[in-house]
Specification:
The chain has 10 helices and 10 strands. It is α+β, with helices and mostly antiparallel strands. It comes from Mycolicibacterium diernhoferi.
Length: 346
């Protein structure tokens, strides 16, 4: 059982999110009006001052709807700012993000497990390095780049996306619901640099965000499949009455329930104060490995149980399959996370 301070509000938040997303892909102004960017921002800065647990509810509903938005990248950017000590520059950025006038996007390595900064901060203050497949970087008004300084210590650099020495190039993907970009810094000058001991927490947050999204889309595909097999008739009766179909749906449900337990535990670990010393990486790896792999398996089975129509463009199952497959590879593959977990046990 999860002990969350605002858990009683989750059902209302979930209901509002489903109603909003049912109309299609909302633009960022609509999400701002709903208060999603400011969920974790302090009330004094214009936010709701809740926790990552509530942000995860929104992320799950975005996955359930396979919605296109900048929520993933901006959520990571806001998380990076929240992990910093209070200060004029940081507070102004959080306030602008809560208002929707600023889209801060965190630039981290989405191809590796754990905090693996792909950028270095030179002794003259210039930033060098590159990261590929960064979510929502092309839409950002502020880039928060995870890097290491000359001593090897993690730092967070605040850059203007339009600044000199910085290149942002969109990456085409089969999944049209995600917008990824390659970010390259060649002598870029940060507006601000902070020591950032919470680098591991930030990358764990990214992995868990993807796991939550995968859980939502898997549940959506199970619900769609159960509805379909109840109305599709063969040999004079619904195909859902056939034992093989029942077993397949039951297997999907079991996988999703296990994923739910792992994801809930990981969300709680990330929701803890980044300065508390709690390491969320183990829970994050378990959730990321299992939930993303489960989502691919569930959507694949959903396509099979939909029969011929499941392979058509009109069914929409392909949208979820592409998103689930991309989720599986982002922030470390399931195999990479399992290797990290196995190394801890040796």
């Amino acid at each position: 059982m999860m002990t969350r301070e605002f858990a009683e509000l989750h059902q209302d938040l979930r209901s509002v999110a489903r109603d909003l997303l049912a109309a299609g892909n909302p633009d960022w102004s609509v999400l701002t009006q709903a208060g999603w960017p400011g969920l974790e921002v302090a009330e004094s800065l214009g936010g709701a001052q809740v926790s990552f647990a509530e942000t995860a509810v929104v992320a799950e509903e975005l996955g359930r709807a396979a919605a296109r938005s900048s929520h993933l990248g901006v959520s990571l950017g806001i998380g990076a700012l929240l992990a910093l000590p209070a200060g004029e520059h940081r507070d102004a950025a959080l306030s602008a993000a809560a208002e929707g006038t600023d889209l801060p996007v965190a630039v981290v390595d989405t191809e590796a497990v754990g905090a693996c900064p792909a950028f270095t901060l030179a002794s003259d203050g210039s930033l060098h390095g590159a990261a590929d497949f960064v979510p929502d970087a092309a839409e950002a008004t502020r880039l928060l780049v995870l890097a290491t300084d000359t001593a090897g210590a993690p730092v967070l650099a605040d850059l203007d996306p339009a600044g000199a020495g910085l290149t942002i190039a969109g990456r085409p993907t089969l999944d049209d619901t995600r917008r990824l970009a390659a970010v390259t810094a060649d002598g870029a000058r940060p507006r601000q640099v902070w020591p950032f001991p919470a680098a591991g927490w930030l990358t764990a947050r990214g992995a868990v965000s993807i796991a939550v999204d995968s859980l939502g889309l898997a549940e959506a595909m199970l619900a769609a499949t159960v509805d379909y097999v109840g109305i599709r008739h063969q040999f004079g009766r619904p195909i859902g009455s056939f034992q093989a179909v029942k077993h397949a749906c039951a297997d999907m449900l079991v996988q999703i329930r296990v994923a739910r337990q792992l994801v809930d535990a990981a969300v709680d670990a990330v929701a803890a104060d980044p300065g508390s010393g709690q390491d969320p990486s183990v829970a994050a790896s378990m959730a990321k490995a299992y939930a993303t792999e489960t989502a691919v398996a569930v959507v694949g089975k959903a396509m099979q149980l939909h029969g011929g129509i499941g392979y058509t463009w009109e069914s929409g199952v392909h949208v979820y399959l592409k998103r689930a497959t991309l989720n599986r590879s982002m922030f470390g593959s399931p195999a990479a996370h399992r290797r990290v977990l196995a190394a801890r046990l040796r």
